[in-house]
Write a structure and sequence with these properties.
heterodimer; A: alpha/beta; Nucleotidyltransferase, domain 5; 2 domains; 5-stranded mixed sheet; 15 helices; 15 strands; B: alpha+beta; two-stranded antiparallel sheet
């Protein structure tokens, strides 16, 4: 079966420039110079993240602002979300840890500093880490993320290291909206609150963005989607940051639970539904390359996106490791080249299939969302009950496109300990809301029945097949069975 | 005349570099203030520098032993709302 992943949303008015995601195809829309830099970066490409790994080192505890979705007290080993870490590192420990991970997990290509505070509010610790890694482990790409307040003062120093990407979290360009997200900033030796604080922060973010672009440093913008606060405003943010030269926009859902002790959590602010998030990402995509595969990882995450091998690299374990980095670098180079070759051949294969698909008679059917259980390599290769997350694809007459990922169980891994009476299975099925089929290597009897009752067709017939092939095959079967003729009210008119 | 950091400190390092008197130092289980060095920023700044960047309500006390950032003043969460949410969690 042939299957393209789309560059374009199915209907006019969606993705104008054919660039709505960060799958490899969307990356193809970028200028060569940028694509070269990002195509092997696990955080920027859904494709690359199945092959390459990233890690964060938690060297930056201090912060110069407060966000309503953050609680500076938190440290929970069972949680995976931004701002959370277990072990704060000194720059020296961070360098040791990075080299130990790079030697043990050769697929690790990217080191980021993302907190748990703001990296640029800890300039000495952050820059010492970057300085040493640029010298001692030159084959690792360096990244940093920031709230932007101290960014203009840091651009010069950032440009001296091996850093080709900076992520700025920009939740608004309107200070009135900002005042509902940021209760205070520390600025010029004072704590400033309200609209005045938000105005300063926004000016610094925009100035920093312009300065980075002028230096030729790639900028990705993260935004947290907060329903009723900035959800209507983020399309405007996307336009503004694109016009200034940001290359990718990552709109992430707010995570807010009362037990996190954040303002939004305690005050009952809800996060967006998957539908609301997708609608916003699609709305922004007319203006901007959108990132859809972000896993919102911890500030000390280690491994492939969505996995965390941090436990293997605690400081007491690292102290006992003997690392020969020269030898490790040679081994890494060989492995990176092999991965690259595999990725290139898969990209070519995919492009050929896209061409072939274009030649086929076009269906006239409505789009369908499907969930896929995969552990990577672009294959359907995970048992339904073992899936920690599902990738969501949309099949339509235009082809197959990656939409998002959804966690199988919620942010807290705890099953019965978190006070929820709902079973993990029920939660998983609820997470698949809106999908009409789920493709996995196998499904047990009990979940099969429950999925069917929930209106989601389980499918284990495409085990070990490439995802896009299988999704299109199932879509065509549904079309042939006459399931896609009508446009039921419940079906999303996607894109 | 000195401020004091108490046990609710989360060791985030934010206060240490902004102290004009170098009175704050890393310690276990939390950061501490050398009361001989602390000037409460007098002569340097009109407001306490440590307490102006500290994100934790109640973690820094003035020389009268009062929290410089009382409950609700930084997060905007009304104290009764916080108590309610925490009681709710404990009940589970």
């Amino acid at each position: 079966m042939e299957l393209p992943v789309l560059n374009d949303a199915p209907k006019a008015g969606g993705c104008s420039a054919g660039s709505c995601g960060s799958t490899d195809d969307q990356m193809n829309q970028l200028p060569d110079s940028i694509r070269e830099k990002v195509q092997n970066h696990p955080c920027y490409s859904e494709d690359a993240h199945h092959y390459f790994a990233r890690m964060h080192v938690a060297v930056a505890p201090a912060c110069n602002i407060q966000c309503h979705y953050c609680n500076r007290k938190y440290d929970c080993a069972n949680e995976s979300r931004p701002g959370v870490v277990s072990e704060l590192l000194t720059p020296d420990q961070a360098v040791k840890k990075t080299m130990a991970v790079a030697a043990t997990i050769p697929q690790m290509t990217v080191l980021g500093i993302a907190g748990p505070g703001d990296p640029l509010a800890n300039p000495e610790r952050t820059f010492e880490t970057f300085r040493r890694l640029s010298e001692e482990a030159p084959d690792i790409k360096l990244c940093v993320s920031t709230n932007g307040l101290a960014l203009p003062d840091a651009v010069e120093e950032l440009s001296k290291h091996n850093i080709d990407h900076v992520t700025i979290t920009i939740n608004c360009v309107d200070p009135e909206i900002g005042a509902k997200i940021y209760p205070w900033i520390f600025w010029n030796n004072r704590r400033i609150k309200g609209v005045k604080a938000a105005k300063i922060l926004i000016e610094q973010q925009q100035k920093g963005l312009e300065m980075l672009i002028a230096k030729g440093i790639l900028v990705k913008v993260n935004s947290v989607m907060i329903p009723g606060v900035n959800d209507k405003h983020l399309a405007e943010v996307s336009k503004v940051v694109k016009s200034k030269g940001a290359f990718l926009h990552n709109v992430m859902p707010l995570i807010a639970e009362a037990e996190h002790g954040t303002f939004y959590g305690v005050m009952g602010q809800r996060g967006p539904t998957p539908d609301e998030l997708q609608d916003l990402q699609d709305a922004c995509s007319g203006d901007m390359n959108m990132m859809r595969h972000c896993r919102q990882c911890r500030a000390d995450a280690v491994g492939l996106l969505g996995e965390d091998r941090g436990d293997e690299f605690t400081m007491d374990k690292i102290e006992t490791m003997e690392i020969d980095y020269q030898a490790a670098m040679e081994k890494r180079k060989v492995i990176h080249e092999a991965i690259q070759a595999e990725m290139d051949s898969k990209r070519l294969e995919k492009a050929a299939k896209t061409e072939q698909f274009k030649q086929e008679p076009k269906l006239n059917t409505r789009p369908v969302l499907m969930a896929v259980a995969t552990s990577g390599q672009g294959l359907i290769n995970v048992h339904f009950g073992h899936a920690k997350e599902f990738l969501i694809y949309e099949a339509s007459p235009e082809g197959v496109r990656f939409i998002s990922h959804r966690k199988a169980d919620q942010y807290c891994g705890g099953d019965t300990t978190c006070g929820e009476t709902e079973s993990t299975l029920m939660r998983t099925i609820r997470a698949l809301e809106g999908c009409e089929a789920v493709l996995c290597s196998k499904v047990g009897y009990e979940p099969w029945e429950m999925l069917e009752t929930a209106g989601i067709q389980p499918n284990g017939e495409h085990a070990m097949e490439p995802i896009e092939d299988a999704v299109m095959a199932v879509y065509k079967e549904m079309a042939a069975a006459g399931k896609l003729d009508a446009k039921p009210d419940a079906a999303r008119a996607s894109a | 005349m000195a401020v004091k950091i108490i046990e609710s400190c989360v060791n985030c390092f934010a206060c240490e570099p902004v102290c004009p008197s170098k009175a704050i130092y890393e310690a276990k289980p939390h950061f501490r203030v050398n009361s001989n060095k602390c000037t409460e920023c007098e002569g340097d700044y009109p407001v306490y520098q440590c307490a102006s960047i500290c994100p934790i309500e109640g973690a820094i006390l003035n020389s009268l032993g009062e929290p410089i950032n009382p409950p609700g003043s930084l997060t905007g969460i009304p104290p009764e709302k916080m108590a309610e949410a925490m009681a709710e969690l404990q009940a589970h």
